[in-house]
Design a protein that fits this description.
The structure is a homodimer. With about 190 residues, chain A is an all-alpha fold. Chain A has two domains: about 55 residues, Arc Repressor Mutant, subunit A, CATH 1.10.10; about 130 residues, Tetracycline Repressor, domain 2 (Orthogonal Bundle), CATH 1.10.357. The longest helix of chain A is centred in the first third of the chain and has 28 residues. At the A-B interface, helix 8 and helix 9 of A face helix 8 and helix 9 of B. The structure holds a DNA duplex (30 and 30 nucleotides).
Chain lengths: ~190, ~190
DNA sequence: TCGATTGTCTAGCGGTGCTAGGGTTGGGTC
DNA sequence: GACCCAACCCTAGCACCGCTAGACAATCGA
């Protein structure tokens, strides 16, 4: 039995290596540079090994996305729990979200831009994705305002942050005024 | 001279055909299906002909994007000019924008998701892109509120719409509550 | 020690964006 | 009207992509 366990452990370890390497490569040179050949070379295995762990490149992107969702949720919770008062909590959340997107562009892309084969906004949505949304909901729900469904408010706020994040990173918005935009967004959307 | 003019005319016509075909193909089957081979086959020329008009696939995407920018600006202006009062104008703008994104997903992708090799938010930004932003600014500027720079407000509002458009189309937001989200966004962001 | 199973690799398929180089065609000139 | 030349377009091919079939080696259980 112990032999099988060791093998399983090694397999799991190699799977982590694949995901970590894909993420690293994507952050360094963009997702276009993450080819199965290059990825295989970096982990020092042949291409088919990748397919014994994942159905294809899509699933690898999906794995990076799930990892990112957990980290994003953690970053948001850390920021909000350190802030005092609803207004400041929301502002901290917004900054944390945008910082995460700016610092981990490839992971953010895996989560929200690329097709990782994940189900969103459904019952069989993976837990990390639900939890990331929950992390937003926790702080945003309290500033939704009377008569406004907290979930709906969170969706709108999230979409706004997502728009700022993607347009900024794609060069559609200049990064200089980023802080001002966040201020404006928080001031207008949040009811405190 | 007349011969050269005719040739120039035919060349321009063929260029329009390329862009129109690329757009059509992208709307029918997505941008992934727009390969240089398929595109060449549809216009009934060989692949290298494409490269006598455009530097590469990127530039073709860029051409579709510019076409889309002009149409988007037109759609927004048509909607706002038919509405009465600032509040209703902004709501009409938001609906027109999101409708455009939903009805022309491939064009919207060319504009804001894909790399069409265009310069944004700079002085040498192509005129259609500047004009599309101007179309938003015209109606949004009047509801920015006191002390808020109209350009900055427009950027924030635009980013929010962009977030709603992309997240909805990517299946991250369910389309059922789309109208409610727009209502909320307009109510909170616009100062009337 | 042997057979079977598991694991990995080499090689290759059909596709991608893009380009070099050879023909063919048609206009301008004598 | 015949010729030359330039402009134009196509065939063929490059290196790369995601993915997989089938041969081979290593390891386990009997």
């Amino acid at each position: 039995m112990s032999v099988q366990e060791r093998k399983q452990r090694e397999r799991a370890e190699r799977e982590r290596l694949i995901v970590a390497t894909a993420r690293e490569l994507a952050e360094q040179q963009g997702w276009d540079a993450v080819t199965t050949r290059r990825l295989a070379e970096r982990i020092e295995y042949s291409q088919p090994v990748l397919y014994s762990h994942f159905r294809g490149k899509r699933e690898i992107i999906g794995a990076v996305a799930l990892e990112g969702a957990t980290e994003l949720a953690g970053a948001v919770r850390a920021a909000t729990s350190a802030a005092h008062g609803p207004r400041e909590r929301v502002a901290a959340l917004a900054r944390a979200y945008l910082d995460f997107a700016a610092l981990n562009p490839a992971v953010y892309d895996a989560l929200f831009q690329l097709d990782g084969g994940l189900a969103y906004a459904q019952e069989h949505t993976p837990e990390p994705l639900k939890d990331a949304f929950a992390a937003l909901l926790e702080s945003l729900g309290e500033v939704a305002g009377d008569g406004v469904h907290p979930g709906l408010f969170t969706e709108v706020f999230w979409a706004s942050l997502h728009g700022l994040a993607t347009l900024t990173r794609a060069g559609r918005l200049l990064p200089e005024d980023a802080a001002q935009r966040v201020e404006l967004l928080v001031d207008r959307l949040a009811v405190v």
